[in-house]
Design the sequence.
């Protein structure tokens, strides 16, 4: 009887340890990928192939940084273009983080890096790359982002394979609605 009680205690400890380990593994694997298009770009700038953010774009990037301020981002990724870099850098500066640059043409490489990053991440891309990125992550919804849309915030949850599409406005746009 004593041996049976000792065996049950050992099994109980092993099961509790496995449950704790499994819970920790699932919790650490939980992540969220925030995907946005760069903020508004200069349209009449001197560098039409790689424009900087416009005043409206800088305001939108600041609004995004404000909105994500309480999200503990493990990584911020952006393409090599100025408009994505400037959008991402605004968030990185607000969080004391850095931006990882991945070529806009390297979706597969980006997805590998996202898979290797634990926790929540932000990806700043382009109207023509966001649908490809989200599909590569596993989203099944076919998306089209118009060239004039800058307010999309996609939230991809890999564990549940859920994609949410939200819209956010700048502080100036919000004050105009009041």
Sequence:
């Amino acid at each position: 009887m004593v041996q049976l009680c000792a065996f049950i205690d050992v099994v109980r400890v092993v099961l509790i340890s496995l449950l704790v380990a499994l819970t920790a593994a699932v919790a650490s694997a939980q992540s969220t990928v925030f995907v946005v298009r760069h903020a508004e770009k200069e349209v009449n700038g001197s560098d039409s192939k790689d424009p900087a953010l416009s005043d409206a774009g800088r305001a939108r990037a600041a609004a995004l940084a404000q909105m994500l301020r309480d999200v503990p981002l493990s990584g911020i990724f952006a393409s090599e273009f100025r408009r994505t870099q400037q959008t991402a850098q605004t968030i990185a500066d607000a969080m004391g983080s850095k931006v990882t640059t991945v070529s806009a043409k390297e979706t597969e490489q980006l997805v590998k890096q996202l898979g290797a990053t634990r926790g929540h991440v932000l990806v700043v891309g382009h109207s023509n790359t966001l649908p490809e990125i989200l599909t590569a992550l596993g989203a099944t919804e076919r998306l089209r982002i118009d060239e004039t849309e800058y307010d999309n915030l996609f939230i991809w949850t890999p564990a549940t394979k859920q994609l949410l599409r939200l819209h956010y406005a700048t502080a100036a746009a919000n004050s105009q609605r009041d």
